[in-house]
Every structure is written in structure tokens, then in C-alpha cells.
Amino acid sequence: MSFSLNPPIRDWHNKVVWIVGASNGIGKALAQELVRRQAIVIASARSLENLQELSPAPRRTLALDISVPEMVRDAVRTLEQESLTPDVVFWVAGVYHPMGSDRLNLEQVRETFNINTIAAYSGLAEVISLWDKTPNHPRHWSWISSVAGYRGLPQAAAYGASKAALSYFAEVSYLELKQRQIAVSLVCPGFVATRLTQKNSFKMPAILTPHQAALETLSGLARGAFEIHYPKRFTLWLKFLGLLPDWLYFRIMRHALPSQDQH
Ligand SMILES: NC(=O)c1ccc[n+]([C@@H]2O[C@H](COP(=O)([O-])OP(=O)(O)OC[C@H]3O[C@@H](n4cnc5c(N)ncnc54)[C@H](OP(=O)(O)O)[C@@H]3O)[C@@H](O)[C@H]2O)c1
Predict the structure, then answer these.
(1) Which residue range(s) make up the domain with 185?
(2) Which stretch of DSSP H or E encloses residue 195?
(3) pLDDT of 263
(4) Is there a domain that residue 2 lies in?
(5) Is residue 9 part of a domain?
(6) Domains: count for the chain
(7) Contacts of 218-224 spanning 24+ positions with Cβ under 8 A
(8) Mind giving me the DSSP string for 7-55?
(9) Which of 34, 119, 168, 169 has the smallest C-beta neighbourhood within 10 Å, fewest atoms?
(10) Mean of the per-residue pLDDT values of the chain
(11) pTM greater than 0.85 (yes/no)
(12) 207 has a pLDDT exceeding 50
């Protein structure tokens, strides 16, 4: 049996789409693909220069640092003033600092949680207060989280935990926003070749290009899925590992630990 958890989105023509984290990687590829599909794209990130170099160009570039709540508030106010209330928001922005629990860098822990998790709350709160001004419109919020949030992974002490929290929040927001016609999806990519994964020194299985990740994301929205995870040849294995009892999971994952001399 198959049924949609969200209203499927197949036609992007004239949809107002705000992509937060559009200057690089997956968000950039999403922005480019959605401009091609004739959506009205607003592209945001910290680097205005990178946003202005996007090709094809989005309708609007709006630089902001999501870890500064006032900047998020101002950005949403700008969207309202310019009659660009988004139909769809892709909350893509994220940072990754590989970190073992035996080598914690508290400054990087704080940055990871501020950007990957805490900022998500201010983003959603601000956009909901804008959406509340024109209720009864179908809207969609898409969280870009990660398979790293499924279970404890080596070197993901901060990143994996920040994404586990984000995925949890995604489920809560799905449950509670549905009755207000706000659909919510949770995107959990495996490895994608971007600036973020350049930090990994190990061989990343089943790695995708950002364009492939963007297409997988959009096809998940076209199916009306809640969780959109890809590539399945990798993510289904992780889901299977997630079902194992702790003793077996930890035994398998111990083999993935970096050797001591890599520190
Ligand atoms: N690559 C992967 O394998 C992978 C796998 C699973 C999940 N993800 C998730 O996918 C998302 C995109 O990652 P990516 O791989 O495409 O990384 P990326 O190439 O580094 O892109 C990250 C984007 O987020 C923006 N960003 C970061 N901090 C920001 C801030 N404080 N305010 C506003 N924008 C900010 C960056 O722009 P500026 O630097 O210009 O601000 C950039 O546009 C992240 O949430 C990541 O956790 C990635």
C-alpha cells in the first residue's frame, strides 16, 4: 500500500521557493534546478557574492546568517514587504566539523548546534508568523537533515547529534503543522560531494553529486513523501543497521572508528 503523507509537488511553475543555504552544494543545486523549473526562487546564505554568481539566476538573493535571529527576522520581513511570501521553504544550511567524543572542540560544538539546530527554530517561528497573516494556503517546509542523525556514528559527536535533534523537530513539526495546511518533509541525504564532505578523509560510499541530490529531493516532494532519504543503496543499509540490537550495532561500528594514529 502506498499513500502520500504530504500533498505531492510536481509543478514548480510560479511557486515562490525560499532556499536557505543556497550558495553552495545541495542548496545551490536545488536553486538552479528550481529556477529551471520556473519557480520564483529566493536564494539565501551568508555569502552574497556566491549567491550573485548563481546561474541561472534566482529571482532574489537575500544574504543572511541564520545563527543571528535578528537577521532571520529581517529577511522574513523583507520577503513580506516584497510580496514574496514563500509557498515552499528548503531549510538547507548546515555546517560539519568532524569530531570524536574524545577530542571535543566546544567552540565548534556551539557553532554546529547554533547553525544546524537552534537556527531552525527561529527560521520556522519567523516564517510561521508570516504564513499566519495569510492562512488557508497550502505551504511546505522541507528540512535538510542527514542520515548521520539516525544512530551514533564515529566522528559525528556534534554533527550527528545536531541532525538527530533536527530530525526529531521535523517529526514534531510534521505532526503539528499539518492541521494548518503546512506540509513538512525531512530530507536525509547520504554522502554528497560538496564543500562539507571535503573534510572527510575516508572513502565515502555511494556518494552523489549535488545535482543528483537535488533531483532526489524534488522527486521525494513529487511523491508526497515525509522522509526523503537517498541514495537507497546506502540509506537502506543504515536503516537496517539502526534496527540492530545495541551490542551488534556497536560491534559493527567499532570497525569504522579511525585508528588512534589518525588523531
Ligand atoms: N554533503 C553531504 O554529504 C550531506 C549529507 C547529509 C546532509 N547534508 C546536509 O545538507 C545541507 C547542505 O550541505 P552541503 O553538503 O551542500 O554543504 P555546503 O556545500 O557547505 O553548503 C552549506 C550551505 O549552507 C550555508 N550556510 C552555512 N552556514 C550558514 C549560516 N550560518 N547562515 C546561512 N547560511 C549558511 C552555506 O552558505 P554560506 O557559507 O555562504 O553561508 C551553504 O550555502 C547541510 O544541512 C548538511 O548538513 C549534507
Answers:
(1) 16-262
(2) none
(3) 40
(4) no
(5) no
(6) 1
(7) 218/12, 218/30, 218/33, 218/34, 218/37, 220/185, 220/187, 221/6, 221/8, 221/9, 221/140, 221/142, 221/185, 222/8, 222/9, 222/10, 223/4, 223/8, 224/4, 224/5, 224/6, 224/7, 224/8, 224/9
(8) ------TT-EEEEES-SSHHHHHHHHHHHHTT-EEEEEES-HHHHHT-S
(9) 168
(10) 95
(11) yes
(12) yes
pLDDT digit string (tens) for 47-89?
999 999 999 999 999 999 999 999 999 999 999 999 999 999 9
Burial status of residue 69 (CB atoms within 10 A of its CB: 0-12, 13-18, 19 or more)? middle
Cα(96) to centroid(ligand 1), Å:
8
CATH number of the domain enclosing 105 = 3.40.50.720
The arithmetic mean of pLDDT across residues 237-241, rounded, is 96
Query: Ligand 1 in contact with 95 (CB < 6 A)?
Result: yes
Note whether residue 7 is domain-resident.
Answer: no
In a domain? residue 4: no
The residue count of the chain comes to 263
Place of cell 527561529: 122
Compute, in angstroms, the gap from residue 135 CA to the centroid of ligand 1.
30
